[in-house]
Design a protein that fits this description.
With 209 residues, the protein is mainly β. It has 1 helix and 11 strands. The longest helix has 11 residues, at 2-12. The chain starts with a helix and ends with a strand. The strands form 2 sheets. Strands 3, 4, 5, 6, 8, 9 and 10 form a 7-stranded antiparallel β-sheet that branches. Strands 1-2-7-11 form a 4-stranded mixed β-sheet, with no helix packed on it.
Length: 209
């Protein structure tokens, strides 16, 4: 699958501004020896909304403490899986079957799925605990929904895949090693790789609570 993504990028090239999801590590809280809470935040781009079943996968969350994954919103289900065969993996990374993936699935009503673009939407309140306090970079994947007919082929209610990198637990202690992640968005209907996403200065922010 990774080769397919690279081939698509090479064939079509990067074009335009990717109004894609961005996922970052918001904070790490130390709860005690070998117990660290990783809190994540994200942004839906102006062209993105959500439908039931859309989801976020954070790959290879090392040192996962059983039962600790959380999403404090009734509209988001938090779970884990050791492999995510229906998710694309960011080029340069793999889905390690010995490490859990954090999976956040949207179960609420459709939002922002037509009539866009909108102001970017920030969210937080997602995360899990790990026995490891160090940090490393690994992949994330989102499935969201395009909310307008402009741009690449496909319009409102077209699935959008976003691939990127995010900070996850690792052995060692290097909290400053991870730069702001690059992301790539790909429309299911057009198979078009869009450009690197940039965070916007104007935001609408929600807490998943």
């Amino acid at each position: 699958m990774k080769k397919w993504v690279l081939a698509a990028a090479a064939a079509i090239g990067l074009a335009g501004s990717a109004n894609a999801a961005v996922i970052t590590l918001e904070s790490v809280t130390t709860n005690g020896p070998n117990d660290f809470t990783f809190n994540y935040q994200g942004t839906l781009g102006p062209d993105e909304g959500l439908r039931t079943g859309d989801r976020l996968v954070i790959f290879d969350f090392a040192g996962y403490i059983a039962g600790s994954v959380f999403a404090p919103s009734p509209g988001v289900t938090a779970s884990i899986e050791f492999t995510s065969p229906t998710a694309l993996v960011t080029p340069g990374f793999t889905d390690d079957p010995t490490l859990v993936n954090l999976v956040f699935t949207y179960t609420g009503p459709n939002i922002r799925n037509t009539g866009g673009p909108f102001v970017p939407l920030d969210f937080n309140g997602l995360g899990a605990r790990s026995t490891l306090g160090g940090r490393a970079r690994d992949a994330f994947f989102t499935l969201t929904t395009k909310n307008n007919p402009d741009g690449f082929p496909g319009g409102s209610n077209t699935p959008v895949y976003t691939l990127g990198s995010v900070t996850v637990p690792a052995l060692g202690n290097n909290p400053d090693a991870i730069p702001e992640p690059a992301t790539w968005a790909m429309l299911l209907g057009g198979f078009g790789m869009l450009g690197a996403a940039t965070r916007r200065s104007r935001r609408t922010k929600v807490t998943l609570a």
